[in-house]
């Protein structure tokens, strides 16, 4: 049972990583309007936050794996699929709590295409991270 919880914690972390990317990308105009910052500033800060979240998320994954959370288990590859329900839960919760009420906050169509591309590539990112961690633990 403990391993099941650990596996779901990893999936939640992965879902949160992609959730932050998509929310920051889709809410550029809303953040700019609410903070009063220039759109270029918001885009730059969003890019920096996205990079930091991915670096910290990847580091946290390797750190928790070194703490014997997933050592030598092939079932870690289930996280490639298990992050999806958590991502849907995050998106549904935020869109229910903070709906777009001002039409100027609607993201542009290219943001949707980039989000779709990110959602397609993200499982491969998880697979690569899990594979690297799994093979490095097998050699030790």
Helix content: over 70%
Global mean pLDDT? 85
Order of helical and strand elements: HHHHH
Biggest sheet record: none
Structural class comes to: mainly alpha
How would you sum up this structure, described in words?
The protein is mainly α. It is 79% helix and 0% strand. The protein has helices at residues 2-26, 28-35, 39-66, 79-97, 109-139. The chain is elongated and about 50 Å long.
How do you describe this structure in short?
Helices cover 79% and strands 0% of the residues. It is built from five helices and no strands.
Give the helix/strand layout:
Layout: H1 2-26, H2 28-35, H3 39-66, H4 79-97, H5 109-139
Output the keywords:
mainly alpha, 140 residues
């Amino acid at each position: 049972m403990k391993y099941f919880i650990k596996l779901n914690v990893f999936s939640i972390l992965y879902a949160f990583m992609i959730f932050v990317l998509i929310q920051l990308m889709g809410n550029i105009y809303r953040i700019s309007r609410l903070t009063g910052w220039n759109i270029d500033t918001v885009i730059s800060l969003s890019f920096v936050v996205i990079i930091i979240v991915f670096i910290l998320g990847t580091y946290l994954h390797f750190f928790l794996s070194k703490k014997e959370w997933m050592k030598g288990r092939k079932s870690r590859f289930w996280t490639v699929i298990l992050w999806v329900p958590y991502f849907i839960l995050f998106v549904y919760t935020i869109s229910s709590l903070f709906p777009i009420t001002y039409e100027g906050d609607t993201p542009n169509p290219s943001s949707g295409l980039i989000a779709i591309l990110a959602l397609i590539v993200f499982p491969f990112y998880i697979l690569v991270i899990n594979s690297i961690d799994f093979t490095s633990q097998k050699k030790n």
